[in-house]
Design a protein that fits this description.
By secondary structure, the chain is an alpha/beta fold. The protein is 66% helix and 10% strand. It binds adenosine-5'-triphosphate.
């Protein structure tokens, strides 16, 4: 399937449930078009009747009756046309609102099902662009283009039909420029499509850059890189400008061109009509009526062409947006292993057996890792930065899958367990703790919303954050919001620990926060860690070795390999890498 047909398929899929509404719109539009193309007939007849009246009046036996008759019929046509169009617009607005709502829901749900790899490899800004640029473009087009396409197509064919009925010669003259118009449109539209696609891609890059820079604003300020940041921004912004200029230029060019052609056509039609009268083939009154009709039809014939070209850039942006949304839809989802083994709880151990792993096929990060944690025992992983500590824990709850060896819970390969049951038994506290909008109590109860206040407090006490929470003006009811984040990294991590403890996971994974932790919080983290790991099956990544001296086993990782194992005392006695690391940290303390 081509990307264009996939994009069209996207619209079809979301519009299909509203086929009844669309059918009604088509019927109403046909009705409206019928009245619109009939109105000039009566307009022409009014002019003919008026001309007859003027001619008859000179002879003294004139009547305005046929003029009024034609005139009222013309007015009725106009009124019914407007009524049908209004109802049709109402129905269109409704199904558009629903279908775009479903699109937004579909995208958000899809994102929830994607693998961690997708989020690791796509900038947040680009993902946000899907919502605030691509879906918006789709919405704009749906709101305007769908209705226009239906009504203008009906008008186009309706006008051709009535013109052929009324006067074949004038009809053919009106339509003579069509091949020329279509050719120009195709050439310009092709160009416009290319640059509008580019415009969207550049906007997405720009959004990605803005997001990255805002996230890294502190680093930028600290390093005095504001000007550099603006300079790079200019680069991205200029690319958007260039693509946007060409895209808008080509797509906007169509409208004035069509307008010019339409006026030219109008002049030709008037001239041809006048020649008909002068040649004496038809009477003056009928001829004048005919000219009035064809002046209307010439405009009605060109109107769809002009309208469709003017909404072209809108449609094109929507197609580009739809292509990107389809690309997200095609992204690999997490395998849910629906018919897998349900992990009821950890009975014996968690083991990594000869685990090999790389984020890409070219570069292996872990080279044969063996770790065996017995139930209710704790393992701490230490090692230099980039040694693969986070990577090990990424494999435990299947953020990523091993490329060699296996990770097993009670001897069962995690890949054969249902994801739901696996995740239900594994609690994870990430290095970057996230607090959601809501109260502190709600944040702690995030994984167990039904938890009682006393359960929440017990978890906070264990995580050693209870006393701090009580110092806040509204205690557990203190509101957390992005703008009003009064918590340090360490405090946020303690709240995250409390949140995870509340769910009482069989296996606890804790990636200790590295930076911005003051000494008081550090001590609190240490106590919290002791509370957390005693008697609980846990994997802890520790940067401060003081926090893990109580761990049952410490694993020293270097360059993706285990180089030492043992408890704190045994490792000190070995006087190896761990010993050196511990001594150097103690020297700083
Ligand atoms: N999502 C990813 N995609 C590609 N490579 C990655 C990804 N995450 C980590 N890596 C690479 O894997 C290696 C190990 O990284 P990892 O985060 O596991 O180290 P770490 O020991 O936890 O480091 P730190 O102590 O700094 O947190 C590094 O070379 C890193 O560049």
């Amino acid at each position: 399937m081509t990307r264009l047909s996939e994009a069209i398929g996207y619209f079809r899929r979301y519009l299909k449930p509203f086929w009844k509404g669309i059918t009604l719109v088509v019927v109403l539009t046909l009705v409206a078009t019928y009245f619109q193309v009939m109105a000039p007939v009566y307009m022409g007849k009014s002019v003919t009747a008026l001309t007859d009246f003027i001619t008859q009046a000179a002879k003294g036996h004139a009547s305005m009756q046929s003029f009024f008759q034609a005139f009222w019929l013309m007015a009725v046509c106009f009124i019914l046309n407007v009524v049908a169009l209004c109802i049709s617009w109402l129905v269109t607005s409704r199904f558009n609102a629903y279908s775009t709502n479903n699109m937004r829901k579909g995208l958000f749900s899809k994102l929830q099902r994607l693998t961690i790899k997708y989020f690791d490899t796509h900038q947040d800004g680009k993902i946000l662009s899907l919502f605030n640029s691509d879906l918006d473009n789709v919405f704009n087009a749906m709101n305007n283009a769908v209705f226009e396409i239906i009504s203008q197509s009906a008008l186009f064919f309706g006008t051709i039909w009535i013109m052929l009925i009324i006067n074949v010669k004038l009809a053919l003259i009106t339509m003579a420029s069509t091949p020329f118009v279509v050719l120009i449109s195709i050439i310009i539209m092709r160009k416009a499509r290319k640059y509008l696609d580019k415009q969207q891609a550049e906007i997405s890059n720009l959004n990605g850059y803005i997001n990255e820079q805002i996230n890294g604003q502190k680093v930028i300020i600290t390093n005095g890189l504001q000007e550099e940041s603006v300079r790079n921004f200019r680069g991205f912004n200029n690319k958007v400008r260039k693509a946007m200029f060409k895209g808008q230029l080509y797509s906007g060019l169509l409208f004035p061109l069509m307008n010019g052609l339409s006026l030219l056509n109008l002049a030709i039609v008037i001239a041809a009509g006048s020649l008909l009268i002068m040649s004496g083939n038809i009477g003056t009154a009928t001829g004048l009526g005919l000219i009035v009709m064809f002046v209307q039809y010439s405009q009605q014939y060109f109107q769809p062409l002009m309208q469709l070209t003017s909404i072209y850039s809108m449609m094109q942006l929507a197609i580009t947006g739809a292509k990107r949304l389809v690309a997200v839809e095609k992204q690999k989802e997490e395998e849910s292993v629906t018919d897998g083994i349900v992990l009821a709880g950890l009975q014996k151990n968690v083991a990594l057996k000869d685990v090999h792993f790389g984020y890409s096929a070219e570069k292996e990060i872990l080279h044969g890792i063996d770790i065996n944690v017995q139930k209710n025992h704790s393992v701490a992983i230490v090692g230099p930065t980039g040694s693969g500590k986070t990577t090990v824990i990424n494999l435990l709850n299947r953020f990523y899958d091993v490329t060699g060896g296996l990770v097993a819970f009670d001897g069962v390969d995690v890949r054969t367990l249902t994801l739901e049951s696996l995740r239900a038994h594994v609690g994870i506290v990430l290095q970057e703790s996230v607090l959601f909008t809501g109260t502190i109590a709600e944040n702690i109860a995030f994984g167990k919303p039904e938890a009682s206040q006393s359960e929440i407090q017990a978890a906070a006490k264990k995580a050693n954050i209870h006393d701090f929470i009580l110092t806040l003006p509204a205690g557990y009811q203190t509101k957390v919001s992005n703008e009003n984040s009064v918590f340090s990294t360490g405090q946020k991590q303690l709240i995250s620990i409390a949140r995870t403890l509340l769910t009482n996971p069989d296996l606890l994974i804790l990636d200790e926060a590295t930076s911005n932790v003051d000494t008081v919080t550090e001590e609190k983290i240490q106590t919290a860690m002791n509370n957390v790991i005693t008697g609980r099956t846990s994997f802890i990544i520790a940067h401060r070795l003081k926090t893990i001296v109580e761990a049952d086993e410490i694993i020293v990782l270097k360059d993706g390999k285990i180089i030492e194992t043992g408890n704190h005392q045994a490792l000190l006695a070995q006087k190896g890498f761990y010993y050196d690391l511990y001594k150097s940290q103690m020297a700083f303390d």
